[in-house]
# Entry
Amino acid sequence: MVFNVSDSDTRKTITDFPYEITKMEHVWIPMSDGKRLAATIWLPKNANTYPVPAILEYLPYRKEDFTAIRDSIRHPYFAGNGYASIRVDIRGTGNSDGYLPDEYLQQEQDDALEIFDWIEKQPWATGKVGMIGKSWGGFNGLQIAARQHHALQAIITLCSTDDRYRDDVHYRGGNILASDMLWWASTMFAYSARPQDPKVVGDSWKENWIERLNTTPYVHEWVSHQTRDDYWKHGSICEDYEAVDIPVFAVSGWQDGYTDAVFQLIENLPYSKGLIGPWYHEYPEVAGPEPAIGFLQECLRWWDQWLKGIETGVEDDPKLISWIQDSLPPQVNYEERPGKWVADTNWPSVNIQNKQLWLHNSKLTDTYTKTDNVIVPSVQEHGYYNGVFCPFGESGDLPSDQRLENGKAIIFTTAPFTENIEMLGNPIFDMEFKSNQENALVAVRLCDKAPTGESTLISWGMLNLNHLMSHENPESLITNKKYQAQIQLNCVGQSVPKGHRLELAIAPTYWPQAWPSPKPVTLELLTNENTKLILPVRTPQPETDASVSFEAPETAQVIDREILREENRTREITHNMLTDTWKLEDYSDEGERLLPHNGLKHGSKNKNIYSIQSGDPLSAKAECYWELTIGREDWDIKILTDSEMTSDKQNFYLKNKLTAFHNEKQCFQRTWEETIPRNYQ
# Structure
């Protein structure tokens, strides 16, 4: 995972702010149990005389090295505009005390409430606090808002979710998200093993490091909870939306893995606004594809309104502003996504109407006509060209031409459109079906097919068919019994031009997105009136839509950094025709950087392999490898991890190994092995 700072020509670097800035490094925030959290604070120099509101970003990603570059363009910007901008390492990460045993723990929230208490006591603080964060920081902003501390007045949450089971890197549609379950666990396995800096904390770093190195891999817990139980309900604000009673600005991008949550949040939180651009999993002032926007200026409008009481007009903004993307041929990365901004004053929007399409032979038609049922067989290697679940903007993240996939699924195609259509929201596929196995899943793709033949993936979704009744209480299917299922595809903001077609692809496999069912599955689609595709078609609102505009991106000056090793990425799919084995190998050398201001250097390499043999779902195997380095002239740390996940009909098998080096000498090695029963997966 790389936190990049874009060199976009449209971004303006601000060096002259309304307020002169001071930076407070290595600030310790004491917790009631004696632990200390490490903070860096940027604030106006005169804040002790003229106190200011505070903005908190609260992450496990190491402020002194790993996020120092990206932090430098954002936190000084807020401070220069009259805020105390605070970056805190979560307990057990960076230089903070302790170790981190899992994501989104109660302890993480409790510590945040104590941070608020501490802020209120500072001479530079008015006592009003906002939270901002992307991904983990977006998640915990929502979760901490639900704790209703009086100091927290508003949040900005980016690339996050309201439901940890439905909409995160562990499960999708009740299926194990094989592409990310082990990868993200292996990422945190390596990240959480990095030590405190002895130059900051002293000799105690060694004892704490041993504690961090012995942290049980998170994947054990995640695979142990295969249904939506209390483990996942914790931290899912959808359990009680009313608990979030402060203004929420929810932001994401169409290339992100978490866009659906924006729709959920603005529909269910009364004091909320939504923004969706064309972007990857990144802040919009630096994100690709273009257009990037002046997002930090938008943040200031939000903070000025809710933390300073200045009327900025955010209350009058549309409920949702989104970028409708123009149709483009498939590419594994885009520098730009042409399109237009649109505005919807409410959500659900009166501008959205459902368009229904029925299955007829190999076609999608506007009217239902009785036709023969359709048999959908398993092809285990279906899904390799889907791209990554949550693109960070690395080259190769996006889906390839779906003609490479369509021979491995059953395809239904519309006639060429006679006029342009725009879609905004979640496509839905309703289907009546029968299964020849007790355990089964279904994956659905929606593609934009150009007159010249290229097929661009615009949305996909999947459902564990054992979860038809609920994600909490799965049941075995009765073979050859008729069932009704509804598959929600990922949300879209997409224009499909005149002359193009839509393709609907259906399969009972989607590797490596879904862990395969234990036996090959054949589905029978019952092509009656209840089996149909529903599209969220938006009627353009020229006057309202034309009113949307943003300033060009602004940031503070990025800190100096020296590139010791350039980034490099390869992503290859191979097919061994002798063994009929397919393999995806994804390698990212995320480079190495030196930070002159503190002398720290850090680098990372990551390799992920997903393999499967045609016809054999039990051959599925995920492997993830990390190498992390951190250090300075007289202190050098290297972490190596390798993680593996396999299964048979009854169990999942997990193996994780961690090796640590201090000044080039191996000082730690441990292997964890775990067997976990399959629970309708």
Q: What stands out?
A: Residues 106-120 form the longest helix (15 residues). Residues 352-538 form a domain with the Jelly Rolls fold (CATH 2.60.120.260). The two ends are 28 Å apart (CA to CA).
